[in-house]
Amino acid sequence: MNFLETVFCGVTLKNPVVAASGAYGFGRDYTDFYALEALGGISCKGTTFAPRLGNPPPRIAETAAGILNSVGLQNPGAAHFIEYDLPWLRAQNTVIIANAAGSSVEDYVENVALLAAADVDMIELNISCPNVKEGGVAFGTSCASVEKIVSAVKKVCPKPLMVKLSPNVTNIVPIAQAAEAAGADALSLINTLTGMKIDVAHRRPILHNNTGGLSGAAVLPIAVRMVWEVRRATQLPIMGMGGVTQWQNAAELILAGANAIQMGTAIFADPYAPLKVIYGLAEWVEREGCNNISELSGQVRPW
Amino acid sequence: MRQENARILSHEGIAQETYRLVLHCPQIAHAAQPGQFVHVLCGTKPLRRPISICRAEGDALTLVYGVRGEGTAWLSERVPGEELNLLGALGQGFPAPASDAPILLVGGGIGTPPLLDCAHRFAAPFDAILGFRSATQVILEDEYRAVCGAVAVCTEDGSHGTKGFVTAPMQEWLAQKKYAAVYACGPTPMLQAVAGLAKELGVPCFVSLEERMACGVGACLTCVVKIRVSGAEDYLRVCKNGPVFHAEEVVWA
Ligand SMILES: Cc1cc2nc3c(=O)[nH]c(=O)nc-3n(C[C@H](O)[C@H](O)[C@H](O)COP(=O)(O)OP(=O)(O)OC[C@H]3O[C@@H](n4cnc5c(N)ncnc54)[C@H](O)[C@@H]3O)c2cc1C
Ligand SMILES: Cc1cc2nc3c(=O)[nH]c(=O)nc-3n(C[C@H](O)[C@H](O)[C@H](O)COP(=O)(O)O)c2cc1C
Ligand code: FES
Fold first, then answer.
1. Is A301 a member of any domain?
2. Residue-level pLDDT at A135
């Protein structure tokens, strides 16, 4: 019985556990630990059309049950990714999601056109990066700009287009609906929450960027709540993420309405965390007497 | 690179707020090269802590660390028999010497441990200059004397060895003896001074750098430092491209 196989906007994932963008690079760094084919998929490091240097260090700070990062989309550019990483990644027998960022509508369009023409299975449109000055989250926090950018990108994207939403909004539902109306094929949520940590002794923020994006266990309840709200407002497939450390956390996101999940921060403490979640989810599905995990998606019983 | 559960064989204080941890950790110990590090899981902390390998000998791995914050405080409470979860051996260590010309090790404070294995494992002769704030912080002096030719110890307050910074004896020694290279680890201002002096005197210099890290394996791009690569500046990863870099390529902050 294949408890975990998941068809996500037409793409078959062998299980619904995907490495989150930015935590896993382009996959190469983890192959000493296990073969990538164990994963449902990998969402690659966010790439821009032109290479980006990213923000000055320090780029990482630890908080209570979480971390703040301010990498700022350091990447070698989409063309480099396509030439050097993609052929290798394709041979790893896992689903490849290209995570696309940009600094203007034209820039996003050019980038997605290039990525979607390459051998990737899906595009994740990152309009929610809190660590870059132009673009990023600025596009993801108003309905008008979400609609504008998603509809423009959709025209050049023959592959399934998954729009990654920011939690840094008062109400995520109209944003999700704007993405759907503009032609998104799926949604992923949540990206990181903007935060700040100050070194009291030096009166300095730890991050050189002063602020950064919060992720890890601390954000799970927010992710669960947002997936639940978005599930009730749209029919689109949802990839849920934010703070998944063990299978129970993934199960919460799935019960709230996610069809698949991603894991990032947990991998830093335990590179094997995704494999443990996959195993735990399979046991859960069997214990619940289901044939496939999709039967549990959205099955929370709210009061 | 692998994950290994390492049993604590011994754990002792060797100076103020400074501990030596000896681990039974065969796989990482056998793979380790001088200057590499391990990434240590500290209880339920979301991030591991990078600690350099001080000594890899047979199945045993020795780490020497200072207590700085919550993670290293947790580490200092661990007792023999307990296990620590490590990733290792990580990064690019010090280059293996190409000849049997002598190499000068220059270590400052908690930056002294990572240099020790060079003198044990590489065939070239080594001298060492070790700097500390004061006598209460001096570590590994006997260990360096056992494997190096000349060893100088300096303290900033003069409470042990020569009073002053490592750069004073370094200038003298580099003028007197022909060294093939300088290998250095310590606080950034010290590294910058050491690199400057080595350049002035025309001796190649390799420095081990620190930056805050998440994954430790090269994936997340959080641990970067600015490095000049064939003329252009780029952010390279301390955990993967380093921690040891050619000093002339480092763009000091
Ligand atoms: C490659 C490398 C090798 C190192 N080798 C040694 C060693 O052999 N002995 C030793 O005593 N120390 C070493 N350090 C420094 C050591 O990693 C820090 O002192 C330690 O991470 C502090 O953790 P904490 O929980 O006590 O401090 P906290 O301030 O509570 O840590 C909070 C976060 O900041 C990070 N952090 C704080 N200070 C540093 C620092 N100086 N460098 C990197 N990350 C930091 C921590 O890892 C953690 O993620 C090394 C650092 C690097 C990068
Ligand atoms: C170091 C780091 C880098 C990240 N880079 C990206 C990125 O390039 N693109 C993106 O869409 N999300 C990025 N993210 C956000 C994650 O993909 C994910 O949305 C978030 O971390 C929440 O999941 P988690 O708690 O499992 O980490 C990054 C997160 C971290 C910690
Ligand atoms: S710590 Fe992740 S790339 Fe260095």
1. no
2. 62
Measured distance CA(B153)–CA(B169) in Å, rounded: 9
A253 backbone φψ class: left, alpha, beta (φ>0; ψ -120 to 50): alpha
pLDDT tens readout for residues B54-76 = 999 999 999 999 999 999 999 99
pLDDT above 70 covers a percentage of chain A that reads 97
Q: Is the shortest distance between the CB of A244 and ligand 2 below 6 Å?
A: yes
Do the domain assignments include residue A267? yes
Q: Does the pLDDT at position A56 exceed 60?
A: yes
Active site residue A143: no
Interface test with B, best of A60, A80, A131, A209 (most B CBs within 10 A): A60
pLDDT class of A94 with cuts at 50, 70, 90: very high
CATH number, domain containing residue A67: 3.20.20.70
- The pTM of this model reads 0.97
Backbone dihedral angles phi then psi of residue B63, each to the nearest 5 degrees: -120, 145
Chain B residues with CB inside 8 Å of A89's CB?
none
Q: How many contacts does A have with B, using Cβ atoms within 8 A?
A: 96
Number of domains in chain A: 1
Is A54 close to B221, i.e. CB distance below 8 A? yes
Instruction: Inform me whether the pLDDT recorded for A137 exceeds 80.
Output: no
Catalytic residue among A9, A44, A129, A157: A129
Name the residue range of residue A89's domain. Answer: 6-296
Angle, helices B167-176 vs B188-200, to 10°: value is: 20
- Residues B18-41 pLDDT 10s: 999 999 999 999 999 999 999 999
| Cβ–Cβ under 8 Å, residues A268 and B220 | yes
Query: What distance in Å separates the CA atoms of residue A249 and residue A59, rounded to the nearest whole number?
Result: 26
- Domain presence at residue A302: no
Q: How far is B253 from chain A (nearest CA, A)?
A: 10
Residues in chain B: 253
Contact B2 A206 (CB under 8 A): no
Q: Burial, A110: exposed, middle or buried (Cβ in 10 Å; 0-12, 13-18, 19+)?
A: middle
pLDDT at A138: 74
List all residues of chain B from 234 to 253 with a beta carbon under 8 Å from chain A: 234-235, 240, 253
